[in-house]
Amino acid sequence: MIRQINVKHRSHKTADTVFPESVLTKPGNLSVRYRACRETPVLRDYKIKPDLPLTVSDIRQSPKLRIVYETENAPITLGFNMCHRLRGTIHAGGKRVRTIERQPGSCTLSYLPQTRCVVETPPDERILGVSVHFSPQRFKDLFAQTPEGLENIFSRTGNRPFFYRQSLFNSQTANVLNQITHCPYTGEIRRLFLEAKVLELVALNLYDMSPAGTPDPSRRETEQIRRAYEILVRRIDAPPTLCQLSRAAGINRNKLNHGFKRLYGGTVFNVLRDLRLYRARDLLLNSTKNLADIALSVGYSDQSGFTAAFRQRFGKTPLAIRRNSKSSIL
Question: Which one, 43, 45, 255, 311, has least CB within 10 Å?
Fold first, then answer.
């Protein structure tokens, strides 16, 4: 599937190699188009404002999907992976400029003008995600002062900025996302409700974004970090220590932790914790295993410790999630 996301300018001038001033000075529309769709994903697009669309993706049991994102006059995008993993590459000027890895619980803020991004999802996983696309002017107007680290997005001179930042979202964000995916309203009330929730997502997540300026890992380090991640996925019930993991992947501990922050949005410990808890949540919603067995299967020998960690991550106890699973899935 090819997904094209572009800011439509009311000016008829062709954008040049610098940040087009028309994006910053004139209102525009955001265009989200799909073509070459072999599968039919469940995509709900909400036009909150002409330059502020919101998309909810929900596929209960997906095939292996390959999606190509094409952007010319790019929006600023805030994206959330609620259930699924994905891997992808970002290309600019015909060259690969970045590899991305996202897991359940990850949030990204990106501005990728004149790029082509290819992402793939594993088969047989539920895909549930929310993405919000702002025109640069709409995003800039949210703030009296530009937040630290985002200044280059709004620069009017020099080459177009390339911005991609990833983090893990917290339980407050998970609750807001759940409210969006289960919005009970229609018409104008729904639009107002979703607009309020989008602003809440921005406020909750800008502070938590990982610091800018950390260098990307090299291609060799990226492969080593991926190897470490796959080890964690395979051994989620009995994971290695950080020292053991770094030795198995062939990379030192500091580079491993920094690399995890860049690729997965958190330290090795935080990524492992989320892998365990999201696996546990999936078992709660899609199996009949009892709570003790689920805790053991994801590496928690103490059920009370598992319950406390689960509640801290999702804002509800495991039993509450299971009771409400038919009407409310985070």
Answer: 45
CA distances from 83 to 1, 66, 106, 216 (A): 20, 17, 10, 26
**Same domain (yes/no): 116, 255:** no
Q: By the 8 A CB rule, do 117 and 91 touch?
A: yes
Domain coverage including residue 121:
2-206
**Block mean pLDDT (10 aa), the chain, length 330:** 50 31 40 49 81 87 73 84 87 84 88 86 84 89 79 59 81 89 92 95 75 68 91 91 94 90 85 91 88 93 91 88 64
Based on the structure, what is the number of domains in the chain? 3
Handedness of CA 195, 197, 203, 205 (dihedral sign): negative
Question: Do residues 165 and 272 both lie within one domain?
Answer: no
Q: How many residues does the chain have?
A: 330
* Distance from C-alpha of 65 to C-alpha of 40, rounded to nearest angstrom: 10
Q: How far is CA 187 from the centre of its chain?
A: 27
Predicted TM-score (pTM) of the model is 0.66
Residues 43 and 134 in one domain: yes
Concatenating the DSSP letter of every residue in 273-310 gives HHHHHHHHHHHHHH----HHHHHHHTT-S-HHHHHHHH
119 and 138 together in one domain: yes
CB 133 within 8 A of CB 5: yes
